[in-house]
Amino acid sequence: MTVFKTFLKVLNKCKVTVILYTAILIFFGIFNMQTSDTNMNFVASKPDVLIINQDKEEGITENLIKYIKENSNIIEIQNNEQAINDALFYRDVNYIIYIPENYREDFLNGKNPEIEIKSTGDYQASLAEMMLERYIKVANTYQKNINSEEEMLNKINDTLSKQIEVEITSKLDVDNLSNATFYFNFANYSILAGCVYVICLILSSFKEQNVAKRTIISSTNYKKYNRILLLSNALFACCLWIFYVLLSFVLVGEIMFTSHGLIYILNSFVFTMCAVTIAFLIGNLINNKNAINGIVNVIALGSSFLCGSFVSMELLPDSVLKIAHVLPSYYYISSNEMIKELEVINFETLKPIITNMGIIVVFLILFIVITNVITKKKRRIG
């Protein structure tokens, strides 16, 4: 109890710093949650297309131009190559279609006339290219089997007017799950930084000369002493974790009341306990209070950037992710990304997440063992 009471006294002295630092973390957490609220749903858009027709606008030629106009934004540009190339360069147009002279006559005679194009090469240009290729493919098919141009055009228009109906079978609340994943990914930084900063600050107070000497000459075994301090720090971390969990119910909303929300919470708890042991190990390695800010930046910010807390794992290079495998944060954030994709929750689907949690627990045990070894050696030296 003596160690625990001392811990509370030191924590009380640090309360202003703790509150201030926690408030800063909360502010950035809320700010990033708000800025991440982007809609990732696909929205079809029409490409900007320029048509240069060198044929008479009738029959198949007229029908082709009509189809392109219905499915794109037609851009009017002065008909000279300099103006056209400038428009392409400055992205005023995505796709340029050159319909050659005698196109209709050559097409009806089965000569398969070539339509030249110019393209910006972006996704809008690719959309225009798929549109043009679809028309030509359908038109060529009917040209081989139908002699009447009018009948052929009716068949082409009828085929192209048919749209594929897409049925969404997934019942996942994608938007809310994405928000929850972002929140708990960002919590990697908040929890780790909060634990490292506060726990290192507290442990540095225990290392003050008078306190350290009393501890060494006392009858308290170093393992018991470490255990009490670790549990005391874990109590603080649990309070911090509970606060972040409650905040998630406010910011993320209804998804936190589902099975997905429960798994997010459990995953964050396991990581919080690991964060305590990381902070406890660092706190036993350093003696200088002035170095704590720098350590927070290296540990919390470094692992957050490497493991996908701020930037999605999908956007990180493979070389970075390979390095990230040696950090507990990687397995915590990886689990969050898996939870987002869970359509069915059972033992089989949860296996990878449970494995990641197990790896985090192994890290936790490893940090405790290393801390005990370091503490034992320091006592001998003292």
Tags for this model:
mainly alpha, 4% strand, 382 residues, 4 strands, single chain
Please tally the β strands and state the result. 4
Which range does the strand content fall in? under 5%
Mean pLDDT comes to: 83
- Separation of the first and last Cα atoms: 24 Å
Order of helices and strands: HHEHEHEHEHHHHHHHHHH
Helical coverage, percent range: 55-70%
> What structural category characterises the helix and strand content?
mainly alpha
Low-confidence stretches: 37-43
Q: Return Rg in Å.
A: 32 Å
The major pleated sheet works out as:
4 strands, mixed
Rough outline: elongated
Number of helices: 15
Strand order of the largest sheet: 2-1-3-4
Summarize this, please?
The protein has helices spanning about 1-15, 15-35, 60-70, 80-90, 105-110, 125-145, 150-160, 175-205, 210-215, 220-250, 260-285, 290-305, 320-325, 330-340, 345-380, and strands spanning about 50-55, 75, 95-100, 115-120. With about 375 residues, it is mostly helical. Helix 3 links the parallel strand 1 and strand 2.
What does this structure look like?
This protein has 382 residues and is mainly alpha-helical. Helix content is 69%, strand content 4%. It contains 15 helices and four strands. The chain has helices at 2-13, 15-35, 59-70, 81-89, 103-108, 123-143, 149-161, 174-206, 209-217, 222-251, 259-285, 292-307, 318-324, 328-341, 347-381; strands at 48-53, 73-74, 95-99, 116-119. It has a four-stranded mixed beta sheet, covered by helices on one side. Helix 3 (59-70) links the parallel strand 1 and strand 2. Helix 8 (174-206) packs antiparallel against helix 14 (328-341). The chain is elongated, with a radius of gyration of 32 Å. The protein starts with a helix and ends with a helix. The model is unreliable at 37-43 (pLDDT under 50).
